[in-house]
Design brief:
The protein is of the alpha/beta class. Helices cover about 40% and strands about 15% of the residues. The protein has a 5-stranded mixed β-sheet, sandwiched between helices.
C-alpha cells in the first residue's frame, strides 16, 4: 500500500514526518501485532472524508491510520500540546487539539475547516474508549460534523486493541489486530432536511446519523 497525500496537505502537516510515523505504525501492526486489514479500497483518496471508528484503546488512532491509504488528521486533548516535543509531533502529523470533553467551539471549527479544505479526519462516535470491549452508543457530535461538512463517512472497525491495551490493562501485550473499512455512507437527504428543520428536529437528525454510523461499524466483520 502506498500513502496518498491530498492537495495542500503540507498546510496541516509535515508529509515527511507523517510518512515516517505511518511506516513505523505499519511495521508495528504487521510484525509485533500480526495486523490484518481489509476494505481500504473503500477510502476515497481525495476530498473531505470522515473515518468513523470504534474506540477500544490508545492504539486505535495509529493502527487505523496505518491501515488507511491516505493521510488523516487526528484528534488529541489540548493539554497534550503544551509539551513542546509532544506538541510538535502532534502538529507535524496534523492533529487537532480539543478540550477535555471535546465540546469547544474552537475545536469544532477546526475540524470543519479541515474537512471543508478537503482533508480526511478520524473520529470516534463513542467519544471515549469502551469499558468492556463492546461497541458503545454513539454521541450526536459526529452526526453534527457529518451533516455540517456533508463529507462521506467511511465506517471502520478495529479488532484486538481492547485485548492488547484496553482500559483493563496497565501495559500493552502482543495480540493480533484487524482493521476493516466499510463502504462510504452519505446522508444527503438528512442534510437537506436539517437545513429546513426545527432546532429540536435537527438535534434528532444529528443523533440519527450518529446511530446509523455506529450501526454500520457494528456490521463490519473481522478481516
Amino acid at each position: 500500500m502506498r500513502l496518498h497525500f491530498s492537495k495542500g496537505t503540507s498546510k496541516y502537516r509535515r508529509p515527511a514526518i507523517y510518512h515516517l510515523c505511518w511506516s513505523m505504525s505499519r511495521w508495528v501492526a504487521g510484525h509485533l501485532l500480526s495486523g490484518r486489514e481489509a476494505g481500504w479500497e473503500h477510502v476515497p483518496l481525495e476530498g473531505p472524508l470522515i473515518v468513523a471508528a470504534n474506540h477500544a484503546s490508545y492504539m486505535d488512532p495509529p493502527m487505523i491510520g496505518a491501515s488507511c491509504p491516505r493521510a488523516l488528521c487526528y484528534l488529541g486533548r489540548e493539554s497534550l500540546f503544551s509539551n513542546w516535543a509532544v506538541g510538535w509531533l502532534l502538529r507535524s502529523v496534523g492533529s487537532v487539539g480539543l478540550d477535555r470533553d471535546g465540546s469547544s467551539g474552537k475545536g469544532l471549527k477546526t475540524i470543519l475547516e479541515r474537512l471543508l479544505a478537503g482533508e480526511g479526519i478520524i473520529l470516534f462516535p463513542e467519544g471515549t474508549r469502551t469499558l468492556d470491549g463492546k461497541l458503545q452508543p454513539g454521541r450526536s457530535g459526529v452526526g453534527m460534523i457529518a451533516l455540517r461538512s456533508n463529507a462521506p463517512v467511511v465506517p471502520v472497525r478495529i479488532f484486538g486493541t481492547y485485548e492488547s491495551w484496553g482500559r483493563h490493562r496497565k501495559w500493552p501485550k502482543r495480540h493480533p489486530i484487524g482493521v476493516r473499512f466499510g463502504p462510504p455512507l452519505r446522508f444527503d437527504a438528512l442534510v437537506a432536511e436539517a437545513q429546513e428543520a426545527s432546532r429540536t428536529r435537527v438535534k434528532e437528525i444529528y443523533q440519527q446519523v450518529s446511530d446509523e454510523i455506529v450501526a454500520a461499524i457494528g456490521r463490519l466483520e473481522h478481516p
